[in-house]
């Protein structure tokens, strides 16, 4: 298996399909009013860098760094079920963190759902700690927040 991770535009049909799958998965676990999705158009903005994981050319995972002044936010982390358990999410997260460090960001934060224990494991293994609400997210029973100083 040849997994490659690269910075790509999210405005590609196969990446749009991957993000649609991510959104559908999240909506199965969290009420829509507590889902804070970036659209692919928002992901293509100047303040966001998107990493796409591909298996022999097929998009199988994604993650993004969204910048908020000196703080970076980890967004849109997703690995297709067929490729989970291979540490692809960890590899994407490492790329997001490396880019944030290279750009001189001081802290990474993220919001994830309260029903995503596999995601929590990835973040905690990468040195993230649970914290209170970050950025402008509301405090909600549906959200779990993490941070990491860089």
Task: Note down, in words, how this protein is organized.
This protein is α+β, with helices and mostly antiparallel strands and 150 residues long. It contains four helices and seven strands, in the order βααβββαβαββ. The protein has a seven-stranded mixed β-sheet with strand order 1-2-3-4-5-7-6, with helices on both faces. The N and C termini lie far apart (32 Å). The model has no long low-confidence stretch (mean pLDDT 96).
Layout of helices and strands:
Layout: E1 3-7, H1 13-29, H2 40-43, E2 48-55, E3 58-68, E4 71-79, H3 88-102, E5 107-113, H4 117-125, E6 129-131, E7 143-149
Parallel strand pairs: 4-5
Antiparallel strand pairs: 1-2, 2-3, 3-4, 5-7, 6-7
Helix content: 25-40%
Instruction: Characterize the main sheet.
Output: 7 strands, mixed
The structure class reads: alpha+beta
Residue ranges: pLDDT <50 for 5 or more in a row?
A: none
Number of helices: 4
H-E order: EHHEEEHEHEE
User: Within the largest sheet, what's the order of strands?
Assistant: 1-2-3-4-5-7-6
Strand content: 25-35%
- The whole-number mean of residue pLDDT values reads 96
Overall 3D shape: globular
C-alpha termini separation:
32 Å
The total beta strand count reads: 7
Q: Radius of gyration in whole Å, from Cα?
A: 14 Å
């Amino acid at each position: 298996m040849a997994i490659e991770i690269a910075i790509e535009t999210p405005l590609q049909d196969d990446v749009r399909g991957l993000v649609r799958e991510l959104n559908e998965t999240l909506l199965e676990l969290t009420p829509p009013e507590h889902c804070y999705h970036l659209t692919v158009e928002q992901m293509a903005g100047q303040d966001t860098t998107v990493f796409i994981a591909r298996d022999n050319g097929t998009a199988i995972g994604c993650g993004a760094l969204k910048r908020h002044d000196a703080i970076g936010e980890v967004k849109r982390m997703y690995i297709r079920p067929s490729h989970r358990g291979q540490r692809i999410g960890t590899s994407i997260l490492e790329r997001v963190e490396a880019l944030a460090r290279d750009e001189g960001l001081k802290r990474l934060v993220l919001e994830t759902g309260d029903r995503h224990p596999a995601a929590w494991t990835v973040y905690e293994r990468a040195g993230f700690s649970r914290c209170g609400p970050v950025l402008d997210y509301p405090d909600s029973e549906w959200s779990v927040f993490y941070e990491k100083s860089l």
